Amino acid sequence: MPRPTKPASPFRYFNSSPEIIRLAVLMYVRFPLSLRNVEDLLFERGIDICHETVRHWWNRFGPMFAADIKKQRISRMKGFRQWRWHLDEMYVKLNGEMVYLWRAVDQEGEVLESYVSKTRDKKAALTFMKKALKRHGKVEAITTDGLSSYKAAMNELGNRQKQEVARWANNRVENSHLPFRRRERAMLRFRQMKSLQKFASVHANVHNHFNQDRQLIDRETYKTRRSAALAEWQNLMA
């Protein structure tokens, strides 16, 4: 019986080490830094690369890292059925035109799904909710704002009884917009819907991975969890 072949390394055609590539992608996606900021910070560490190299690395490896993180998280949460989701949409400007970034977070504030559309009607809400339900499974309750598109979409999906609408009930997802807004300002906004969708998905998964709710735990627990998250990151796509 032939022995199974080991998958080829995605880093095999690159001269830089995987550790440097992971560090560059981490700095650019996780923190509100420009490409040139990352280039300068790496240069201080003795790594001489161009900012366009950072752009190429995050475009090439960012989605791979995000998919690996999401796959691990979904497998861990597969049997969990007491989820409470919070849904909201935010404005994002593309070349002077407003588009909508739909986002779903769970009761712990972790981003489950991101979806970009030109409208916020029933069709867009339905597409967004179908993606989230297909990927993450059943949910106990869904909190939204008063947008009628959510009600129409949930009526079609047959889970209207799970919808909750109340004043301040959706603060969880409203607060989750802040890290993305900071990142958006550092990038001087976006140019295309495709790049917005790509970066929003990658940023959400990286943010989830390093989000330890440090305000809710003691210092030692936070340091332990942070070290574990960094160790997992360093082993992505290994």
Q: Main β-sheet: number of strands, strand sense, barrel status?
A: 5 strands, mixed
Strand content of the residues, in percent?
A: 5-15%
The shape is globular
How many helices? The count is: 8
Question: Within the largest sheet, what's the order of strands?
Answer: 3-2-1-4-5
Structural class: alpha/beta
The chain-level mean pLDDT equals: 88
Helix percent reads 40-55%
N-to-C span: 26 Å
Order of helices and strands: HHHEEEHEHEHHH
Molecular structure report:
It is a single chain. The protein is α/β, with parallel strands linked by helices and 238 residues long. The protein has 8 helices and 5 strands; from the N terminus they run H-H-H-E-E-E-H-E-H-E-H-H-H. Strands 3-2-1-4-5 form a 5-stranded mixed sheet, with helices on both faces. The longest helix is centred in the first third of the chain and has 26 residues, at 51-76. It starts with 17 loop residues before the first helix and ends with a helix.
